[in-house]
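Dear colleague,

As promised, here are the two records you asked about, laid out in our usual form so they can be pasted straight into your sheet.

NAME FIELD: protein one
SEQUENCE, THEN STRUCTURE:
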Amino acid sequence: GYTMVFGIIGMFNFAHGDVFMVSAFIALIAFLILTTWLGITSIALALFIVLIVAMLFTSLINWAIERVAYKPLRGSFRLAPLISAIGMSIFLSNFVQVTQGPRNKPIPPMVQGEFVVMNGNGYPVTLSLKQLIIWGVTAVLQAAFWYLVAKTRLGRAQRACEQDQKMAALVGVNVDQTISMTFVIAAALAAVAGTLY
């Protein structure tokens, strides 16, 4: 997600790490609501619902960030969007610190279990079930992302905007919409990472 935004607007999105953090908190709050208030006992179902909720809310937040902090500065001198990105990063981190408190919020591991790959000289090499889930989700998302960029109309628009936004606009690509969708997809990917984290 970070490289998508950098590729399409040519600017470091310093707020992306904070979007990841916000998505982790959204996932945690959604998980607590589902399991405590709504009484869902299946961890797999709860995590799937949490993943969808975190993707939706984080995408909405990143879309709003793009509209408020980046779009008005598009086309201005290079330092203005950079300062805006740093400002959004500071705002998000302070917002979470005020609303959630400055302390760490440890939670017990929801997925447990491991597989011993090999055992040599009394030192086992293991793979946890959590690692396998993360690898599997990452592989599925990589394949979906490759398909999106290589085979869809949005992917062609993203590649065109990455090469030359003015020329892309001249051939009919809606540059603003393409950039907004890229921010939404980047936030959805950050939400997946935040949920898995």
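NAME FIELD: protein two
SEQUENCE, THEN STRUCTURE:
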Amino acid sequence: DFQVGKVDELGGSEQTIKRVADMLNAVASRVAEAGGYEEIILADLGDSTEGFGNTVAQAQTNDLSITDQIRVILRLYAEAIKLFAPLCKRLWFVSVPSNHCAVRTGVGSKTRANAPDDDFGLLVNSSLQLVVENREELGHVSFAAPQKWEEALTLETFDGTCVGFTHGHLAGSQSKVASWFSDMSFGHRSGLHEASVLVHGHFHNFGVSLTGDNRFVVSAPTADNGSSWFSTSSGVSSEPALLSFDVADKRAQNWELKYAA
């Protein structure tokens, strides 16, 4: 949830770019100090751009056009791939559709223009794939996104642990994500019946819970400029952070939050 282009109590795009770059470099330094990994998954959990289709106010508060938002997030994720590709034997870049990145015909949640894959975040994913393919030094980098009518996907790691990814908005509230995960698993949607771990964003705070037969539900924090509207209406806020953790033997563990310097 970088929400590039958003202006709020923690600043604008300049502050977002610096914050994200600092966080990515901090995580990469830790991975390098650990000697690298067999496999790394970079997960874009959605809302990488702020967009203009969620509220009327975005037209007055955003400091970047939609095309410039896309250019910035392309650069940030390209830098992330450059940072992490030398630190592993296989690198995945995963993206999922989201509410802020959906292409819309107007303002509001019911104005989605097309299928879920009509999404600026997925455009960034496919654009990066075009840049990376056929480059020998990046031959171990792969890209993944949900199928056209799906809004989640599941990846199997080297050791056989299956990890699901979704934005989180379809659950309606954070307290309902576990039951949404259960429903999708029972319906055999997006391969989530195989997943031991589900990772999502959208709710802007870090959290871990268990559901079913020891399946992990992991909520990632946001790296955006804050939400003064939410904070002034609820009193709740969270400090921007980037989450990293390990997955092995069908478990998620070794959580680490990197905060801005």
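A couple of things worth noting about protein two: The first helix runs from residue 13 to 33. The chain has a mean pLDDT of 96.

Best,
R.
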